[in-house]
Design goal:
Elements: H1 2-14, H2 32-65, H3 81-109, E1 117-124, E2 127-132, E3 137-141, H4 145-151, E4 173-176, E5 181-187, E6 192-196, E7 201-205, E8 211-215, E9 221-227, E10 239-245, H5 247-267
Parallel strand pairs: 1-5, 4-10
Antiparallel strand pairs: 1-2, 2-3, 5-8, 6-7, 6-9, 9-10
Helix pairs in contact: 2-3
Length: 268
């Protein structure tokens, strides 16, 4: 039984899906708020580590130093006002040290005022729709064909040969670097969630309701995420890709999108 259990664990560790992402911590991200969130997370983590060292250290020292085999007699007191004050005051101070910066960050995370760009994001089973407000540009973003073909049973395609397997789309959300991008998030059918770790965003898409969030990417590049709300049979096949371009590259992309839509409309 033990041998089978060990073999099962080893199999899970060696499985390709298990090796997909071995990140042990949240990413720092590429926005000011993602870095601030990461620093806040680490601050709380270090406080927890320090508390654990003190508490468990005191417990272990007490167990070893005051064990019965040494002939130690138990103390005969029932109350200590000094101890009550100390173990009440110290946790209050620690909580305040954590709560104040956390509250400041939470306020910043909800401040979507004065955006440079607003995109309406709508979740569908199982894809995303992006509409750039005021730009007359909109499109659907679905799982890339390379991943869609490889995921099918008996496809004959080795998923390990597919770059960014299940994390690539046919049309990414494209935004300019340094711009404050407001996301208005909703759903056309069931609950979805728009989650991009490098942007420190995880927001629910709720039918009939509009959620709001924003980000300002400080580095150009491609950042990937996924739907993070179980939304049906193909929940695992609706990735998110955000491509951050320099301002001139973004403007060229935007103009190309408008010209392409205009030519498509004329052809019809």
């Amino acid at each position: 039984m033990i041998r089978r259990t060990c073999l099962s664990v080893a199999g899970l560790i060696l499985a390709g899906s298990a090796k997909a992402d071995w990140a042990l911590n949240m990413p720092r991200g590429v926005t000011e708020l993602s870095v601030e969130t990461y620093d806040l997370h680490m601050q709380v983590f270090y406080w927890c580590v320090a508390i654990a060292i003190v508490v468990f250290g005191a417990m272990i020292w007490s167990l070893v130093r005051h064990r019965k085999s040494l002939g130690v007699e138990p103390a005969k007191f029932s109350h200590s006002m000094a101890a009550e004050v100390i173990w009440t005051t110290i946790p209050i101070i620690i909580l305040l040290l954590m709560a104040i910066p956390a509250a400041e960050t939470l306020v910043k995370l909800e401040d979507g005022r004065k955006p440079d760009l607003t995109v309406v994001v709508t979740g569908y089973q199982w894809r995303w729709h992006y509409a750039y407000q005021g730009e007359d540009v909109s499109f659907y973003s679905s799982l890339a064909r390379t991943s869609a073909d490889a995921r099918r049973k008996n496809s004959g395609i080795d998923p390990f040969t597919v770059e960014n397997y299940l994390l690539e789309v046919d049309r990414p959300l494209v935004v300019p670097r340094g711009a404050k991008v407001r996301i208005l998030l909703t759903s056309n059918d069931v609950l979805h969630a728009w989650w991009v770790p490098d942007l420190a965003i995880k927001k629910d898409a709720v039918p009939g309701f509009i959620n709001e969030t924003f980000f300002r990417a400080e580095e150009s590049g491609v950042y990937r995420g996924q739907c993070a709300e179980l939304c049906g049979m193909d929940h695992g096949y609706m990735p998110i890709v955000v491509e951050v371009l320099e301002q001139d590259e973004y403007q060229a992309w935007l103009d190309n999108q408008k010209n392409g839509d205009a030519k498509l409309a004329a052809a019809k």
